[in-house]
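Reviewer 2 asked us to include a model.

Predict the structure of this chain.
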Amino acid sequence: MIRFENVSRTFSRDDGSTFFAVHNLTLEVREGETLALVGPSGCGKTTTLRLLNRLIEPTGGRILLGGEDTATVDAVRLRRRMGYVVQSGGLFPHLTATRNIGLLAEIEGWPRDRIDRRVAELLELVRLAPAEFQHRYPFELSGGQRQRVGVARALMLDPEILLMDEPFGALDPLTRAELQQEFSELERLVQKTIVLVSHDLHEAALLGDRIALLDKGELVQVDTPDALRRAPATPWVESFFLGRDAAAIQ
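Predicted model (structure tokens):
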């Protein structure tokens, strides 16, 4: 289980003043669930995700992973326990799909035959035939294929946690819908604890067991998509979920 305990993160403006990107966040992510972080632009979604793997350090509070304070864990080893998927796959353009997926295993010192077996297994998992795609470079892949390779890379070391920062946001609507459905099926197969950042309520409701709604760096409400629709905690939540985007969580 992941637990944020009164976590805050401040940043400095050009004029020397500071502002809270995340403020007194207390939130649990249950083992094996997919939690979607949703809210307006600038609400702290991505900052929250990066605090978890210590790409950003908190300025207050603490984050516990399985009861252990992540601040006491070596940052590199911590990140090895977490796969990370970003928009457009974030692939290295000069490496083939196989090298992109297997790079962390190379760094960990895995033998080549073990890496190749694992890469082939993961390509099959994300519906890319190894014989056809393993030697392709990112420029030879479509946007959806690059994102599939990005997901495979995040799963290479079999991490216990998967972090996804608007993973399908850069795709065209048809490809986005296809990958959302595929990932919904993949969730059941890989059985990971997943934290997903999204600005798309339909995506959050499709993929998330629960949705955490953030605004101005603070947690407003966290619950299942159906509960958020039926019992919003504040008028703002009601407006956010039942007004403009009501159809997204029906």
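Residues 245-250 have pLDDT under 50 and may be disordered. DSSP finds ten helices and ten strands in the chain. We have added this to the supplementary material.
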